[in-house]
Design goal:
Blueprint: E1 13-14, E2 17-18, E3 28-29, E4 42-43, E5 62-71, E6 79-85, E7 98-102, E8 108-112, E9 117-125, E10 132-133, E11 150-152, E12 155-158, E13 163-165, E14 174-181, E15 192-196, E16 202-207, E17 213-219, E18 222-229, E19 233-235, E20 239-243, E21 250-252, E22 255-259, H1 262-266, E23 277-278, E24 289-296, E25 300-308, E26 313-322, E27 325-332, E28 339-347, E29 350-358
Parallel strand pairs: 5-12, 5-13, 14-21, 14-22
Antiparallel strand pairs: 1-4, 2-3, 5-8, 6-7, 6-9, 9-10, 9-11, 14-17, 15-16, 15-18, 18-20, 19-22, 23-24, 24-27, 25-26, 25-28, 28-29
Amino acid sequence: MGNYKIEVRQGDTVVVFAEPMNRNFVAEFYDNQNNIADANRIGISGNVTGIDFVLDPKPVYANGISGTIKDTAGVPVQGHVTAFKTQLNGHNNNRHSEYTIESDSLGVYSLTNLVPGEYIIMVHPEGEYRPTFFRYDGTSTMNWKNADSIAITESGVVSDINFVVRTCVGGGNAAITGKIAQNNGTQINGALVYAFDANGDVAGYAVSNASGNYVMDGLIPGQYTVNTDKFGYTASSSKSVVLDYQSNLNGTVSLTLNPESPTDVETSASNEVTSYGLSQNYPNPFNPSTQIRYQIPTATNVVVKVFNVLGAEVATLVNGFQSAGSHSITFNASHLSSGIYLYTIKAGNFTATKKLVLMK
């Protein structure tokens, strides 16, 4: 019937957030607020009633992300692709933050109807392939903070977000088990746990269950460094373990993950940005999409546009107020012809221009 009850502690001050299981509705903070900074603070001096929500229907966006999953030999791989929305606390930026789809037998996937914003993409391949987040340079990373972000607008599909997945180097019958939890003991479900061998290669991985437990088997004897990772969390440290057939065939490693605050996830290390900057797009040359990165040290209005060599504007990529930090935008030039183009940024008193090359 939509009724709820949450046990809270007297004397605390809380904010209340409703995230519907039905993705056709938009999550919100009470009272119809989009982010935690604006959310109503509720002091708990006794039972509190009437904290009701009327959720808005989710808009339908004609956008998406598409690409392929293949191994290093070019063979298609099936897998689960997940898009995580990185800006969990921005203006008009609700926490419908995760979208998952399975690729077909040819490794092709397509995510659609995404809330506009920046996303990082992860693939969990089937078989002996290890998970990875997307990077434009084609390298593999199992840490979400090293992923490249993809900017999604209200319309248009960002294509060619392709994954090249790699196998693990295991092959033995040793194992590592343990538990992933927060510092306060809260068990973490769905954390990725992975082991590096002495050569720095990924020898195996596992995913924690609802109790925070994991089992990583198929390892050969040797010394391993075990890490854990989950989107929106930060690991406290890694740990080492030595496996051998005589005394320690099954090692035990437990690790901690702690959630970052929403503002920590919203932008990439905004507190470290001390100057304006516009980076060279990557890849360059490109076809048909490329990533443009820039940074601003203070919140301000930002305009990013693309022009042809005759000075005619061909695209407006950003035009609005943005928070301080590092940002990125994907430019899809599928409607343009091959050639040299210029992209410019205006932010406060800062302006910069760089060249990009579209080669079809």
